[in-house]
Write a structure and sequence with these properties.
The structure is a single chain. The chain has 160 residues and is mainly beta. It has one domain (2-159): Porin (Beta Barrel). The chain is built from one helix and eleven strands, in the order H-E-E-E-E-E-E-E-E-E-E-E. Strands 1, 2, 3, 4, 10 and 11 form a six-stranded antiparallel beta sheet that branches. It has a five-stranded antiparallel beta sheet with strand order 5-6-7-8-9, with no helix packed on it. A hairpin with a 2-residue loop joins strand 3 (46-51) and strand 4. The longest helix has 19 residues, at 2-20. 24% of the residues are buried.
Amino acid sequence: MKRIVVICLVVILMLVTVLSANCDSGGDNKNSISWETGQISLKADDFYIIADGECFYADVEDVDLHSDPGTDDFTLEAEWQENGVEMRLNIYFYANQSNWWAEEIRTYNGQEDGDWIYYTGEFFKTSLGSAFTGDVDLYSDEDNDYTGQIHFEGIQLETD
C-alpha cells in the first residue's frame, strides 16, 4: 500500500510539472519576436522559453538587445524583466569560410537570483550569406541545476 501511494505521488508530481510547463501559444495567438542588432536579425512567428517549468515570452515593452561582434565569433544577447525576474537569452555564434552556426545558447533560469541554463551543440548551421529558417525546439543540457526549453516557430535568423 505504501508503495502505491509513493508511485501515485510521483505520477502526480510528473503531471503537475508537465502541465505547468505548457507554454504553447496555440491557434492565432502566436508570440512573435523581431530582434535586430548591427550583426544579427532574429525573427520568429512564435517564441517562448520554459525555465524551471515557468513560461517566458519576452513580450514586454523593453527588451535590451546587443551583440558582441567578433571576426569568427559573435553574440546575440537579449535581456528583459518578466514574471518579476530578470531573463536573458544569449546565443554564441561562430563562422568559418563557408558556414555560420551557434555552439552554445544560454537562458536565465527564471529565479530571483538568475543563473544560467546551458544548451550546447551545433545549432542553426547555414551557409554564409544565407538565413536559417524553420521550427526549432531546444532542450537544455542534462547537467544543469534547472531544466529549460527554447521554442522558435517560423524562425528566420540571419547574420551579417
